[in-house]
């Protein structure tokens, strides 16, 4: 672990993270990474204090297991852990976090520890009576010693020998500072000598008081030992709980450290995905300050980075591996949230020159040893810097081409930096290899630290040499030796890079224009939908006004049966039926599985037959509707409440325009429907409304089947949402 962290220049970053732990531990967070991330997300919503510094208690747990006696400060360390979990239990957590904290049930015996200690780890007054009495006696003894010393200091005989009138604490003893010759006026013991030649002395008349204090301290230690034995015995009974709570404390410590580390510099958590695809967006390597963000798509098996010297090729390699490593151990870092990181069991870096005099191994031989181990790896990502190191470039190109292609078959991801144009050319036709070029600013003659995918980069060795002071005539001669044909090849590579860069810029511009167009289109679509809703709303009001008028007309007909009245009613009905609003339609390419909207109902497109479509709405009901009336909908279904079945039967009177079939059996409902339609035809109605409800769908299906066969029915359709929607039919006679 330390080796790969050092190779990727992450040592300082990891150490700064570990400083946030309350006690030293590995960065590895064992267990389900998805569950850990869920708990970290929930915990980060609360303003919670970080745990205090706590000692490592592994040895203390072994002492308890061996029936040993813990010291008072060890017991207090366990108390700090208990107190932190009691603190966490005060919060109103929800979800997985609540489940986890609720599972931590602290035994009543251990809960008492919270009342034993103050915030500094000292026993509180009242815990042990003997301890309290001894403590009070020690305080009184200290006062007596201090008073005796000040009495000696104020003695007129000693005053000529005093250096100052202070009481000094020397070697844990209260003493006074005197000049030589003091023994003529006071009997005292010298405990120390100052740099100026004066003496720190303790008068003999307070020796008895000090002996008394020593005896009291010994008794206090005996009382504390008795107390520690009692607590240690109790700890032995709850050993399994103490091991559990110690482990859970490390877990919450991991969570809190990651939360504070993420908030410190606005870092993001990026979970590894189940596949091994990688896509870094605006990643900044932690070791670099003010670096340009890196964006790279690593969905293929191999990335081969070529191009200018000192252009950031190695840092690109380290960046990809660093992102994978940090995500693997759920450590936050600076990258855009849209980044995708693969999940790998092994993360390997072949970066250094393996040459060793001690082991009698050459650079190339050392590289071959490292490559040979890769064939036994699975689910690995490997970074290889300067792959051509240590051997002939043409031979190496052929060898590494075969090695890389074999490693691709083993599903191993590889990031390579190289100056091998031949190796890059050999692998360019492989659809599992992505070429990336480090770019160079010709005008200013310096690397840009930017990268372009899909092309081979030029190394710019001559330009780099010139920039660092190599004489121009030497560079000119070197170019001649290099050859005009190879120089022309480099020019072609450079021109290709320029074209790729120009093409990329055009694509970015087109993408932005397309994004703007889509945004405008979405706005216009929303405006159209709002206008449609307004039209439907107005039409609904007109329908209601018409129904109210028709009800009044029906009552008039019942009161005075007249053919003239029927005629006027039919005319009114015809006029109301002709009230229509023109809905603005937009032809959309819909396919099976799309979410669609039909009037105010939303659902999924199940099938298409000609100009008809079958949809299943969010209530689970299937409908046959005109394809032209459908529009795309991206909204997810809202939770629906199933309507309660009405248990009352409303039988229509002769000549009524509404019938409610809720709660009726199929055969009973069809009988009532037949009578209702006969009465409506006799009354001369052109349009009636039947409520059959949704329910299980049996009554609705039976009603539609009956209406399909009835000879006097011209057509029928689902009612407007204000009149029952899918649970009702408007029938035209």
UniProtKB/TrEMBL annotation:
UniProt xrefs under Gene3D superfamilies: 3.30.1370.110, P-loop containing nucleotide triphosphate hydrolases
Coiled coil: 482-563
Record bears the keyword Nuclease: yes
Pfam family, one: MutS_V
Sample GO molecular function, one term: ATP binding
Subunit structure: Homodimer. Binds to stalled ribosomes, contacting rRNA.
UniProt EC number: 3.1.-.-, 3.6.4.-
Biological processes annotated in GO: mismatch repair; negative regulation of DNA recombination; rescue of stalled ribosome
Name of encoding gene: mutS2
Family listed: Belongs to the DNA mismatch repair MutS family. MutS2 subfamily.
Top-level taxonomic group: Bacteria
Primary role: Endonuclease that is involved in the suppression of homologous recombination and thus may have a key role in the control of bacterial genetic diversity.
Positions bound to ATP: 307-314
SMART domains: MUTSac, MUTSd, SMR
Descriptive protein name: Endonuclease MutS2
Record-annotated Smr domain positions: 659-733
UniProtKB keywords: ATP-binding, Coiled coil, DNA-binding, Endonuclease, Hydrolase, Nuclease, Nucleotide-binding, RNA-binding, rRNA-binding
UniProt signal peptide: none
């Amino acid at each position: 672990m330390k080796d790969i962290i050092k190779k990727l220049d992450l040592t300082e970053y990891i150490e700064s993270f570990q400083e946030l732990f309350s006690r030293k531990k590995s960065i590895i967070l064992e267990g389900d990474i998805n569950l850990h991330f869920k708990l970290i997300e929930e915990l980060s919503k609360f303003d919670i204090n970080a745990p205090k510094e706590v000692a490592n208690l592994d040895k203390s747990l072994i002492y308890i297991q061996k029936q040993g006696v813990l010291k008072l400060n060890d017991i207090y360390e366990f108390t700090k852990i208990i107190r932190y979990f009691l603190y966490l239990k005060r919060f109103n957590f929800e979800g997985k976090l609540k489940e986890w904290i609720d599972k931590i049930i602290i035994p009543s015996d251990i809960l008492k520890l919270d009342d034993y200690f103050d915030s500094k780890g000292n026993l509180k007054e009242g815990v042990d009576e003997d301890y309290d009495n001894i403590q009070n006696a020690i305080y009184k003894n200290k006062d007596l010693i201090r008073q005796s010393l000040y009495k000696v200091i104020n003695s007129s005989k000693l005053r000529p020998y005093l250096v100052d009138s202070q009481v000094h604490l020397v070697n844990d003893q209260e003493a006074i500072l005197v000049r030589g010759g003091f023994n003529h006026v006071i009997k005292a013991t010298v405990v120390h000598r100052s740099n100026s030649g004066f003496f720190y002395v303790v008068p003999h008349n307070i020796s008895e008081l000090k002996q008394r204090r020593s005896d009291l301290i010994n008794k206090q230690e005996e009382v504390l030992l008795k107390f520690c034995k009692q607590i240690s015995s109790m700890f032995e009974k709850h050993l399994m709980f103490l091991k559990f709570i110690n482990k859970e404390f490390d877990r919450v410590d991991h969570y809190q450290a990651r939360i504070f580390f993420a908030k410190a510099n606005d870092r993001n958590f990026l979970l590894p995905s189940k596949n091994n695809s990688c896509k870094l967006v605006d990643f900044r390597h932690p070791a670099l300050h003010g670096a340009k963000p890196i964006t790279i798509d690593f969905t293929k098996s191999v990335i081969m980075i070529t191009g200018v010297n000192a252009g950031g090729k190695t840092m690109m390699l380290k960046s990809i591996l660093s992102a994978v490593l940090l995500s693997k151990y759920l450590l936050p870092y600076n990258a855009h949230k849209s980044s995708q990181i693969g999940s790998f069991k092994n993360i390997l870096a072949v970066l250094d020159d393996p040459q060793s005099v001690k082991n009698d191994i050459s650079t190339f031989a050392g590289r071959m040893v490292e490559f040979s181990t890769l064939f036994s790896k699975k689910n690995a990502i490997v970074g290889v810097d300067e792959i051509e190191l240590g051997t002939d470039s043409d031979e190496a190109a052929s060898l590494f081409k075969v090695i890389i292609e074999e490693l691709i078959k083993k599903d191993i991801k590889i990031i390579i930096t190289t100056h091998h144009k031949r190796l890059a050319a050999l692998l360019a036709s492989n659809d599992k290899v992505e070429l990336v070029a480090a770019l160079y600013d010709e005008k200013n003659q310096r690397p840009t630290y930017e990268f372009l995918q899909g092309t081979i980069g030029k190394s710019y060795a001559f330009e780099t040499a010139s920039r660092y002071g190599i004489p121009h005539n030497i560079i000119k001669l070197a170019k001649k030796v290099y050859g005009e044909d190879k120089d022309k090849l480099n020019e072609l590579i450079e021109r290709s890079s320029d074209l790729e860069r120009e093409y990329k810029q055009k694509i970015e511009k087109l993408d932005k224009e397309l994004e703007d167009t889509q945004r405008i289109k979405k706005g216009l679509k929303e405006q159209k939908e709002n206008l449609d809703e307004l039209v439907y709303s107005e039409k609904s009001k007109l329908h209601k006004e018409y129904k109210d008028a028709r009800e009044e007309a029906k009552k008039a007909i019942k009161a005075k049966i007249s053919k003239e009245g029927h005629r006027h009613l039919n005319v009114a009905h015809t006029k109301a039926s002709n009230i229509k609003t023109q809905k603005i339609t937009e032809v959309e390419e819909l396919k099976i599985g799309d979410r669609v909207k039909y009037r105010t109902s939303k659902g999924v497109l199940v099938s298409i037959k000609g100009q008809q479509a079958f949809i299943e709405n969010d209530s689970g009901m299937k409908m046959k509707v005109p394809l032209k009336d459908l529009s795309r909908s991206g909204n997810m279904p809202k939770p629906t409440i199933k309507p309660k079945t009405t248990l009352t039967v409303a039988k229509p009177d002769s000549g009524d325009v509404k019938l409610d079939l809720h709660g009726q059996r199929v055969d009973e409902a069809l009988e009532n429907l037949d009578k209702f339609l006969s009465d409506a035809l006799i009354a001369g109605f052109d349009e009636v409304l039947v409520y059959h409800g949704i329910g299980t769908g049996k009554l609705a299906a039976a009603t539609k089947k009956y209406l399909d066969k009835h000879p006097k029915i011209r057509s029928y359709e689902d009612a407007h949402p204000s009149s029952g929607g899918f649970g009702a039919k408007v029938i035209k006679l």
